[in-house]
Amino acid sequence: xxxxxxxxxxxxxxxxxxxxxxxxxxxxxxxxxxxxxxxxxxxxxxxxxxxxxxxxxxxxxxxxxxxxxxxxxxxxxxxxxxxxxxxxxxxxxxxxxxxxxxxxxxxxxxxxxxxxxxxxxxxxxxxxxxxxxxxxxxxxxxxxxxxxxxxxxxxxxxxxxxxxxxxxxxxxxxxxxxxxxxxxxxxxxxxxxxxxxxxxxxxxxxxxxxxxxxxxxxxxxxxxxxxxxxxxxxxxxxxxxxxxxxxxxxxxxxxxxx
Length: 258
Ligand SMILES: Nc1ncnc2c1ncn2[C@@H]1O[C@H](COP(=O)(O)OP(=O)(O)O)[C@@H](O)[C@H]1O
Ligand SMILES: [Mg+2]
What we know:
alpha/beta, Rossmann fold, 9 helices, 10 strands, 33% helix, binds adenosine-5'-diphosphate
């Protein structure tokens, strides 16, 4: 089960005053402040182009802040900490094929822990446990490209869980999933005892999985509150081009307490 947010531990993620412009001069982030407590599950909502992926790329130092700071469990994201930061921040990118490149599922999941120095039975055990957590242990010997898209996304989740991250970051996890795969992934996310930052414009998915949400719009956090509160705020939703699916009423949903 998911743990209760631990407010005595340093926050899993602390973003403060983060601003960033791409080399072509396009400014994507204008001073983002966002804190995620250990054990919390936060949905980061926002329309296309809001800067969500740009923010995610700062969390493990793929992009380098123009201004402001990012800390992961108290550790600043900066060059001298990058190896440790990349172990702590597990990012599952939108396209699993960006993440899976080995001949078998087992080797893909072993890749990170092996690079971090794990060997032998310890490594094998880490791989099995990560695959079990996503229900893919039976596929360890299979080539990733023989799996369905939903299965590949689950293996991508296992590759980052195998690193035992401080925070699991999912960029649009429900995109391109059929309803059954979407449901299976939700069950997996709910079963993990790890801090989760879920970037999505799938609002029912956010409501189902994340007690708290923040809206990123035009490069700033425009709202931060309980997911239900935000989704029920029609003016807020409209102002940031966030649309609920036809017939979906966020008021009628019983939401998880944590
Ligand atoms: N490599 C890049 N160079 C220049 N502008 C970019 C680049 N990547 C993204 N952008 C721009 O930055 C803004 C934020 O993009 P992104 O973070 O991908 O948004 P989101 O993930 O919320 O859809 C958009 O206006 C996008 O066009
Ligand atoms: Mg994106």
